[in-house]
Amino acid sequence: MGPDEQLREEFNRWAVSGRGLEMERHHSRIAEKTIEQMGIGSKDRILELGCGVGWACRRLACLVPEGLVVGLDISDEMIHQARAASCGQDNILFICSGAEEIPWKEDFFSHALSVESFYYYPDPVQALRETFRVLAPAGRLFMLINLYSDNAESLQWVQQLKAPVKVLSAAEWVQLFREAGFEKVKESRVLDDRPIPETYQGQWFGSPDQFQRFLEAGSLLVIGEKTEPTTASRG
């Protein structure tokens, strides 16, 4: 079984078990804070990579009433659920595809967003290059992840997840963005400021203190821009 098929099977299982719906609750706050930084206009065209059941796409679609949101995910079951939940919004389109070969024309999207998906991609540099290709000049990619090597509390997930992941540092992700052609690359942390219940008994952390340390480290946000070609580069 190839890596794409392995990912599709795993995330189809997530979708069937309802875990796709859980993602909104887990990642809503950090996604909202990231979307606030994107500078979205009413006519913009936005690509979401690893869209899952489409909760972030639906939020983005409300911000671009004259634009378009395209959600892409490797899981056909996630896409099925996303389409069913988004049938009332006619400016959303969902595509079942891997991120390493995006079925869209170049220079189209004004923004791209990825929430908690890039570390799953078998070839993240190729996924970055493809995202770069479909972005219009001056378009920007916002990549938001919780699993990265600088956040020590996140590393326990590697053994719990049933799909291989790429665990990189913030500096390594910045370097991959640059290798893919992005410029003006910068990284920061997005803090999830939700309160932790004193009786926390979640799946991913053994204690409230461990969860608190994870939240204090913050989610990694890397932003890269497809800059306008210079006169010299146009030949």
Taking the sheet with the most strands, its summary is: 7 strands, mixed
Q: Tell me the span between the first and last alpha carbons.
A: 45 Å
The coarse silhouette is globular
CATH fold naming:
Rossmann fold
Major sheet: arrangement of strands: 3-2-1-4-5-7-6
Secondary structure tally: strands: 7
Structural class category: alpha/beta
Our Rg estimate from Cα atoms comes to: 17 Å
The CATH architecture category equals 3-Layer(aba) Sandwich
CATH superfamily: Vaccinia Virus protein VP39
The SSE order reads HHEHEHEEHEHHEHE
Strand content: 15-25%
Average pLDDT works out at: 92
Domain count, please report it: 1
Poorly predicted residue ranges: 231-235
Indicate the CATH class. Answer: Alpha Beta
Describe the structure.
β2, α4 and β3 (92-96) form a beta-alpha-beta unit. It contains 8 helices and 7 strands. It starts with a helix and ends in a 10-residue tail after the last strand. The protein has a single domain (3-225), classed as Vaccinia Virus protein VP39 (Rossmann fold, 3-Layer(aba) Sandwich). α1 (3-17) packs across α4. A 7-stranded mixed β-sheet has the order 3-2-1-4-5-7-6, sandwiched between helices. The chain is an alpha/beta fold. It is globular and about 50 Å long.
Reconstruct the topology from this structure.
Blueprint: H1 3-17, H2 19-37, E1 45-49, H3 55-63, E2 68-73, H4 76-85, E3 92-96, E4 109-115, H5 124-134, E5 135-145, H6 157-160, H7 170-179, E6 183-190, H8 208-217, E7 219-225
Helix pairs in contact: 1-4
Structure described in brief:
37% of the residues lie in helices and 21% in strands. It is an alpha/beta fold and 235 residues long.
